[in-house]
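Possible race condition, two jobs.
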Amino acid sequence: MKAFQGHKYPVRDLSPSDLKFVSASDDHQLKIWDFRRLKEDRQLSGHNWDVRTVDWHPHLGMIASGSRDKTIRIWDPRSTKCLATIKNHADMVTQVQWNQNGRWLLSSGRDCCIKLFDVRKLDEEMTTFITKRQVHSIAWHPVHETMFASGGSLVDNNKMQSEGSIEFWVTDSTRPKACVEGAHGSQIWSMDWHPMGHILATSSNDKTTKLWCRPRPGEHLPTELGGLDVDERIFSDPVNHDAAEQMANQDHIHDSTLRNAARHHRHLRGYRRLVSVD
């Protein structure tokens, strides 16, 4: 065991590569640490306020960080230079995460927006996903490249309410495809998928960690989510899954967007709580 004492203020996030990892702190700094030498390797300076989130690119020597100063910065870990500064959020950036395809960067903020960027053109976002919640956590699905989940809290007159909801998104739509309202009693600070993608873990300010999975065929969601039918409870508008799939499979329809929509709608029919850990 080795304890690293390298920051003056709380450490907010960590992200590893093969031989190193990077830490983000309220002291405005990012620091790269060497696993093998068990010491600080480099320091990345440039943010003007607390650095809340960091993510090392899955394939390239590139690091993304997000700060309370409303900016996202892209870093070269070898030269410690800032390669790009993105100022597209109107409030604190709460999380950044690279997609496993290596091209997309997802960011969330307290401005009730989730933004998708292409690494080949970082000066403007590809898509802005709009929600009525301040977003505290996001997680790309490990199997479905275009799907991700977010955890957020409702805002009323600039005051956060004590609730945490999970929303499910597909990159071809700016509105959530599904939502589990009241999933937690407070903000959802962190979430991550099982590597196979069938379970989502969430942790919250309500001092619980919960595991969520899709219902089995014919199984309904818990009655605690309301007395509506499953589709009415999960989707903003009722969706006829069977009709969408039948249309997508017709020979004269070659629209890949429709086929993908039918596939994702089947995947997002709903999540039920598997277990809760206090």
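Job #2 (started ~2 s after job #1):
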Amino acid sequence: MRTTAALAISALAATAASHATFQELWVNGEDEASTCARLPANNNPVVNVGSNDIRCNVGGTKAAGAKCSVPAGGTVTVEMHQQPNDRDCSKEALGGNHFGPVLVYMSKVEDAAKADGSSSWFKIFELGYDSATKTWGNDKLNKGCGKQDVKIPADIAPGDYLLRAETIALHTASQANGAQFYMTCYQITVTGGGSANPTGVKFPGAYSANDPGIKVDIWGNSFTEYKIPGPPVYEG
């Protein structure tokens, strides 16, 4: 195995050209494009887990143009690309050795167009590291045109939610504040469903800079397993 230092240098060299954002949303196979996405101003990551930007990215309190209607129990597909409006599937979604997990959260709000992300969030999806195949959650994004399917819990109460899609790039995470967080919030309205209101966590607060899934050396010879940060997935 290559040394940690050599791999970290290689990862840093690829960093500038390999940032990305979640941009589009599909609902049960229907392309909603970016209509309900609070698109970040650029493709740079958030690196401070104690900042309010960890909620919905820099400028993430600015409302999107619409809300996407999603049936409880339905499937949404979040879609990530390196550059705005570039959905070229021949390009990796993130690339540049930006290996890491993919996580998706929801937050029940009164009005998705006005919510600032300060309410509680519950996790509905996570995909981390498979030690058998040595693949990461965002390897699937890179191989699948930036797309990840996520099922909306069937029992949650109807109404407005923020849907938060995130990947954490860990290529430089062995150093303090080296993890890179790429997230976008989507404004959705859930229809149908039940009455469940899952307990959640707050951002900032859910992550610590020293969490084993955030400050971690993925290049070292001793790396064999990965602990995904945040709460457990709500099964519903």
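The first strand starts at residue 21 and ends at 27.
Logs attached separately.
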